C-alpha cells in the first residue's frame, strides 16, 4: 500500500450527503427547495447537442454576462467549480506548506478541508455560546504570519452574520493575508463586501449558484478580487474546471432576476414563520440571516431528526459540533408548513 502525503494522513475525513435524497423534502443542505428558474432548464435543453458537447468549454460569453450582473470587470473574477473550487484555489495560490490559516469554528467544513489538504496550519476561533461572531477575539488572533482568513457571511451553520464594519477591521488588521468573505447566502441577508474588491488588495469574495439559484448539481460559483490578484488565481486554476453546461446555466440564471427575488421573499417569510412556530413550541433557536435556522432540540436532536426522516423530511443534525442542535433549511412556505406541522406532532409526543 502507498503512503499518502503527510497532510492527507492528518486531515479529518469529510462525509458528503448520503444518497437517496430525491423525492424527499430536502431541508438538510440549504439548497433551493423548488429548484432553478425554468429559463435555466430551457437554456440547457437548447444547448444539449452533440456538437456543443464535443467542444471544450468557452467562457467568454458567461464572463461577459456575469461581469455585468455582478458589476465587476471580467478580469476581476473567475468562474469556479462551486465555491469549493474557489476556496481550494485561494489556498493553493497563496498558502505555502505550514502557512497560518484562520477560520471560525464551527463554520463551513471545506475551509479546514482544503487548508489541511494543502498542508496549512489551521487555527480555529470558537464561537461563543450565543453563536455571534466574536470580533475582538478574532482580531486578536490575527498575526503578522497569518496568510489566509476564511469567513462565511452569514456563517453556516450558525446563521449569524458579520457586518461590514467588522469585515473592514479584519481586512485592515491583516494586510498580508488573503481574506475570503464567502457570500454563499448573500441573497438572504443583503450584506456584501463585493464592491470593496478594488479598495482592499487583500479581499476575495465568493458567490455560488448552489443555493438561491437552485443549481447545486451544476457546481458553479465565482471568486472575485482585484485583477492583480485574479491573474495569480487564474494561473493556478485548471483551464476547464467549470463545465460548459454550468456556464450556460449560470448565464441563464442571472437573467431571471424576478424568479430569484420571489424565492428570496418566500424564504424570508418562511424564516419568520419557522421562528414563530419554534417560539410557540418553546424550542430555542439562533437568529439567522441565511436560508436556514439552527434550533436546539437537546437530547431529542437525533431522535427527532430520524423521525422526520421517516416522514421523508430531511434536516441536518449538527450536534457533533453544537450539542443538541439541528439545522433546518428554509424554502417555500409550503415546505415550512409541512416541516412545522410534523415537528409539532413529534415534539408534543
Ligand atoms: C458557507 C458555504 N459556502 C459554500 C458552500 C458550498 O458552495 P458550493 O456548492 O458552491 O461549493 C456552502 C454549502 O453548504 C456553504 O455553506
Written description of the protein model:
- The chain is of the alpha/beta class.
- The chain folds into two domains: about 120 residues, Aspartate Aminotransferase, domain 1 (Alpha-Beta Complex), CATH 3.90.1150.10; about 220 residues, Type I PLP-dependent aspartate aminotransferase-like (Major domain) (Aspartate Aminotransferase, domain 2, 3-Layer(aba) Sandwich).
- Helix content is about 40%, strand content about 15%.
- The strands form two sheets. It has a seven-stranded mixed sheet with strand order 2-8-7-6-5-3-4, with helices on both faces. Strands 1-11-12-10-9 form a five-stranded mixed sheet, covered by helices on one side.
- Strand 3, helix 6 and strand 4 form a beta-alpha-beta unit.
- It is globular and about 60 Å long.
- Bound molecules: pyridoxal-5'-phosphate (PLP).
- The site of pyridoxal-5'-phosphate has 13 residues, from helix 5.
- Pyridoxal-5'-phosphate binds next to helix 5.
Write the layout of secondary structure elements.
Elements lengths: L5 H5 L14 E3 L10 H10 L2 H4 L6 H11 L6 E4 L1 H13 L5 E6 L3 H9 L3 E6 L8 H7 L4 E7 L11 H10 L4 E5 L20 E6 L12 E4 L2 H10 L7 H12 L1 H25 L2 E3 L5 E5 L4 H10 L2 E5 L7 E5 L3 H15 L2
Parallel strand pairs: 1-11, 3-4, 3-5, 5-6, 6-7
Antiparallel strand pairs: 2-8, 7-8, 9-10, 10-12, 11-12
Helix pairs in contact: 2-10, 4-10, 5-6, 5-9, 11-13
Amino acid at each position: 500500500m502507498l503512503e499518502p502525503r503527510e497532510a492527507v494522513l492528518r486531515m479529518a475525513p469529510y462525509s458528503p450527503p448520503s444518497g437517496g435524497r430525491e423525492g424527499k423534502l430536502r431541508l438538510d443542505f440549504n439548497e433551493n427547495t423548488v429548484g432553478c428558474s425554468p429559463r435555466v432548464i430551457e437554456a440547457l435543453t437548447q444547448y444539449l447537442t452533440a456538437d456543443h458537447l464535443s467542444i471544450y468549454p468557452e467562457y467568454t460569453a458567461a464572463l461577459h454576462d456575469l461581469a455585468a450582473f455582478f458589476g465587476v470587470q471580467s478580469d476581476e473574477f473567475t468562474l469556479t467549480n462551486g465555491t469549493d473550487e474557489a476556496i481550494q484555489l485561494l489556498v493553493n495560490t497563496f498558502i505555502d506548506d505550514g502557512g497560518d490559516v484562520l477560520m471560525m469554528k464551527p463554520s463551513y467544513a471545506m475551509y479546514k478541508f482544503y487548508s489541511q489538504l494543502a498542508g496549512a496550519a489551521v487555527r480555529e476561533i470558537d464561537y461563543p455560546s450565543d453563536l455571534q461572531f466574536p470580533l475582538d477575539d478574532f482580531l486578536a488572533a490575527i498575526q503578522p504570519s497569518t496568510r489566509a482568513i476564511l469567513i462565511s457571511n452569514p456563517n453556516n451553520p450558525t446563521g449569524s452574520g458579520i457586518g461590514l464594519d467588522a469585515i473592514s477591521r479584519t481586512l485592515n488588521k491583516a494586510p498580508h493575508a488573503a481574506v475570503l468573505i464567502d457570500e454563499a447566502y448573500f441573497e438572504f441577508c443583503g450584506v456584501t463586501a463585493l464592491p470593496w474588491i478594488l479598495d482592499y488588495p487583500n479581499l476575495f469574495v465568493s458567490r455560488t449558484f448552489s443555493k438561491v439559484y437552485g443549481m447545486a448539481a451544476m457546481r458553479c460559483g465565482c471568486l472575485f478580487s482585484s485583477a492583480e490578484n485574479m491573474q495569480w488565481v487564474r494561473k493556478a486554476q485548471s483551464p476547464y474546471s467549470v463545465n460548459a453546461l454550468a456556464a450556460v446555466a449560470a448565464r441563464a440564471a442571472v437573467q431571471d432576476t424576478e424568479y430569484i427575488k420571489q424565492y428570496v421573499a418566500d424564504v424570508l417569510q418562511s424564516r419568520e414563520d419557522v421562528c414563530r412556530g419554534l417560539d410557540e413550541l418553546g424550542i430555542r433557536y439562533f437568529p439567522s440571516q441565511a436560508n436556514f435556522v439552527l434550533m436546539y432540540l437537546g437530547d431529542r436532536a437525533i431522535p427527532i431528526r430520524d423521525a422526520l426522516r421517516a416522514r421523508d423530511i430531511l434536516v441536518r443534525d449538527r450536534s457533533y459540533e453544537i450539542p443538541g442542535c439541528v439545522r433546518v433549511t428554509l424554502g417555500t412556505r409550503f415546505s415550512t408548513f409541512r416541516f412545522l406541522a410534523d415537528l409539532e406532532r413529534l415534539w408534543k409526543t
